[in-house]
Amino acid sequence: MSKLVFMSPEHVARMNELLAADRVSQDECARLDRHWDMDYELAHGERTVWWTMSVDSVPGVSFSLEPPAQPAGILLKGDYRAMMEFMRRSKAGETPGSEPVTLSGEPEGMKIIDAAFQAASRAATLDTEIRMP
């Protein structure tokens, strides 16, 4: 069986399945007083690639590859190829440096959602293949 491709529709669907069943990340989300979106807006040639993580008290954390329906609380902008190279190096155990994105919106949101983010990461990190475009 081949590995899922990182941030492919199949990868995102599988992460969402795991998160829908994960009580720990849901409990962390229940502690939040509002909905948060953390959106990656990644330039890839003439198009934009979106990775959106929604954090809400109900149903918890979920991912999407669709453009956000509303402005993000946390927006990370960068280049798709640079981000994929960063992820490839991280996965390989290399020290990739800082994430190649700029942060805007409500940067304090990163601290606010950190416990939910960490719980979701533990629940939904899968062994994936990173394909460089």
Helix content percent band: 25-40%
State the domain count: 1
Can you count the helices?
Answer: 5
Shape: globular
Provide the CATH top-level class. Answer: Alpha Beta
Q: Compute the separation of the termini in Å.
A: 22 Å
Largest sheet: 5 strands, mixed
- Rounded average pLDDT: 93
Q: By CATH's scheme, which homologous superfamily applies?
A: SCP2 sterol-binding domain
Question: Which stretches are poorly predicted, pLDDT < 50 over at least 5 residues?
Answer: none
> Beta fraction of the residues?
25-35%
CATH fold label? Nonspecific Lipid-transfer Protein, Chain A
Q: In order across it, which strands form the biggest sheet?
A: 4-3-2-5-6
Q: Identify the CATH architecture.
A: 2-Layer Sandwich
Number of strands: 7
- Rg is 14 Å
List keywords for this structure.
single chain, 133 residues, alpha/beta
Question: Can you describe this structure?
Answer:
35% of the residues lie in helices and 28% in strands. It contains five helices and seven strands; from the N terminus they run βααββββαβααβ. It has one domain (4-123): Nonspecific Lipid-transfer Protein, Chain A. The strands form two sheets. Strands 4-3-2-5-6 form a five-stranded mixed beta sheet. Strands 1-7 form a two-stranded parallel sheet. Strand 2 (36-44) and strand 3 form a beta hairpin.
